[in-house]
């Protein structure tokens, strides 16, 4: 089969070279998605023996921005790649030997899983959970299947890839002018991938912000100049967040202490510039002011944390109502219980009366509308 698609009778843009060139870009996009995806997963589901770094504070902002940019670019690349091989996916007889069967099975898995991964990834960006399975667990599990199938696919196709790579530049064009149409096709695919990126990357890359017309969230747009992922109304906290008897309870083996908002305001205040970096791809830096978490724990008489803290929100339902904070973030002086954002009292949609903001963590862990912090050891 490898030799067949190099034959002169192949439609020019569907030659092995086109497939290899597009495949190279798609493979790179998938590898970036995989690496950055594993990093995001480890931040959200930490392994006890692998402490994740709190610096640089913008590291997750960078990796997750890249994840979504590469995933977005993968959509046109994947469609282009499928188009160049489309007829070959349906050759007859479907299976000629055991080796052929394995090759075809791995391609079927690769194509199917790739399509599902980019589709549910895009759906997650626009918060359209129209599928009956949990997004993150599924996206993560399928990523491993995809990478495995990709490795098999590359192994099987190595002779074709090597042949294309060995060819001299002069061999590229043939008498029928295939090089030109191939170049046109690749330029079109490149332009599609570049525009998909350019029109969305501004949700995380400030320099591209003016071009961001497709991404659901805009930099600088939202209360206090910062986008909102879930509002107080959506979280069901519009009353509890402004209740006059609100207190933040800090518990530890040493005991429990309640802090009113005035108590928190009378503790030493610190101001830090830290990003909100949403797993959905948008991110923005902001200026936060409040009590350093480590100072608060100290004021509550809690021991220096050595196990994950349990952080509870006033929000009663939903995955982010409760989060865990590994001890390295709790001990980090940049981690704040923020009371102010960009120079004003925290907007209710940003987590009034108090929220967590820690360096290098995904937005989902930056719990809003705090109710309780528990030091377990
Ligand atoms: N209690 C609670 N905290 C939460 C959330 C939530 O739904 N409930 N959403 C998180 C997510 S996904 C993000 S990206 C950030 C967004 O913070 P912002 O709305 O202040 O920009 O808040 C996080 N904190
Ligand atoms: Mo988020």
UniProtKB/TrEMBL annotation:
CDD domains: SO_family_Moco (cd00321)
Every Oxidoreductase molybdopterin-binding domain range: 243-376
Keywords: Membrane, Transmembrane, Transmembrane helix
Signal peptide: none
Stretches that traverse the bilayer: 21-42, 62-86, 107-130, 142-165, 185-209
NCBIfam families in the record: TAT_signal_seq
Protein name per Swiss-Prot or TrEMBL: Twin-arginine translocation signal domain-containing protein
